[in-house]
Design a protein that fits this description.
With about 290 residues, the chain is mainly α. The chain contains eight helices and no strands. About 65% of the residues lie in helices and about 0% in strands.
Length: about 290
Amino acid sequence: MRSSNPVFSRRGFSRDNGYAGFNTAPQAGYAQGNPYAQNPYANNPYAQQDLQQGAPPQAPATTGRMTMDDVITRSATTLGTVAVGAVLAWTLLPISTTSYGLAVGSAIIAFVLAMIQSFKRTPVPALILGYAAFEGVFLGVISEMYNSQWSGAPFQAVLGTMAVSAATLLVYRAGWIRVTARYARIGMAIAIAFVLVMAVNLLLVAFGVAENGGLRSFGPLGAIVGIIAILLGAFFLTLDFKQIEDGIAYGAPKNEAWLAAFGLTMTLVWIYIEMLRLVAIFSSND
């Protein structure tokens, strides 16, 4: 099993080596029919190396393996690039048809760069930072647009994104959510269904079948859909947290901290955009 997030195509750490981003340790009722149940590290080259040396899986910084400090540093760099791009776009691009066109173009470029990285065998920092920069430009323009109609909406969306992220991390660290293969399958099925429904809704709106945005309207139905989208973002965060935790425990290479930063950034962008819409909906109904 592997972790993922809203683009549905990001691979787990060390794809060609077999590491999948989820702890395969046996659980109650899981041993039957599972070839790895008796040896949870059988499909992990880094864990095998540790076991051969008679030590439990670990990731000391001196061996060139990924550590939490690496993940934090790369994530701060990537999210910082998004923030700089957003601030520059907000400051330098006035609200106009041209800026909207630049926002759409930036979003397309960011998507293409994300897809290229998703199919790369190793993380490419230039691609990840390029994605972050163009995504930042897109977020800066739409944030300014929302702020012009609902003053303070972007700031509230940032606070909301931070609150969702902190709450998800707290729940995950407390063990209230266990990220298992079954949990991931069910969540991914719901997420894929959600995206497909949104795609159909977009087509219906484009052809005039659904009015006022359909399921994405600025009414009660749109608020419900927005809340579901934010909950899905929290779900993806739990997958990212589990992938990072297992990557460190099983000794993923140090440079793959960029993959962790890449995944976290995409998930947080997802949550922020949905939070921005939700804030606007509630502000419109005041």
